[in-house]
Automatic annotation (TrEMBL):
Name the UniProt record assigns to this protein: Uncharacterized protein
Gene Ontology biological process terms in this record: phospholipid translocation
Keywords linked to the UniProt accession: Membrane, Transmembrane, Transmembrane helix
Phylogenetic lineage: Eukaryota, Metazoa, Ecdysozoa, Nematoda, Chromadorea
A cellular-component GO term for this protein: plasma membrane
Annotated SUPFAM superfamilies: Calcium ATPase, transduction domain A
Length: 209
């Protein structure tokens, strides 16, 4: 299993973001431009309605009751019907940024290694109890999984944990081109065409001289 320390990079309070703003020069004067952050496993992102998920995510909470979110996977499988995802029971009620960061600052998430199974996910989240030995463990499965490329629909916003980013996402692993297989007849036809072209070329050279 892969272990993910939440907010390990710069502290969890600095990782909740999906875009950053910087000045950009244009013929019409300075403007603001949004660009994606370099996401990595362990970051928490805030995604709004109509946006595509920038990585493979684990749903924590949303604007809907019980952390429910509706997603569209048309970019992945062509299906336009909405699918329901549910936030982890331990985090579904954490709808404010400060509450979320305080609750998850000593949390470890574990999940399976990156793979091509688009609709499969297994993992768990372990909340470390500092004052006691009673750590809390919550299982996670595909009902909390948000695939990269899917879009958030009918839900104002979600907070989610990045579990796979970049080339490790299921979308990218399934985008690798496979070699095209040729039938024996096609191979034989190509061979005969090459031989015929060679014979015509030799004949033209002989008759020329």
């Amino acid at each position: 299993n892969r272990k993910i320390v939440i907010g390990v990079a710069e502290g969890i309070t600095n990782t909740i973001a999906t875009t950053k703003i910087f000045p950009q020069t244009s013929p019409y004067g300075p403007q603001s431009c949004s660009v994606p952050l370099s996401l990595q496993a362990g970051m928490i992102v805030y995604v709004t309605k109509g946006s595509a998920f920038p990585a493979d995510l684990l749903l924590l909470s949303s604007s809907e009751p019980a952390g429910i979110a509706y997603i569209e996977t048309a970019n992945l499988d062509g299906e336009t019907n909405l699918k329901i995802r549910k936030g982890l029971p331990s985090t579904a009620s954490l709808v404010h940024r400060d509450h979320l960061t305080n609750e998850l600052k000593d949390t470890l998430a574990c999940c399976e290694e990156p793979n091509k199974r688009l609709y499969s996910f297994q993992g768990f989240m372990k909340m470390v109890a500092l004052e006691s030995r009673n750590d809390r463990v919550f299982l996670a499965d595909k009902s909390q999984f948000l695939q990269r490329g899917a879009k958030l629909r009918n839900t104002d916003w979600v907070y989610a944990l990045v579990v796979y980013a970049g080339n490790e996402t299921k979308f990218m692993l399934n985008s690798v081109r496979t070699k095209r297989k040729k039938s024996r007849i096609e191979q034989l036809t190509n061979y005969l065409m090459v031989c015929q072209f060679g014979m015509l070329l030799m004949a033209s050279v002989v008759y020329t001289y």
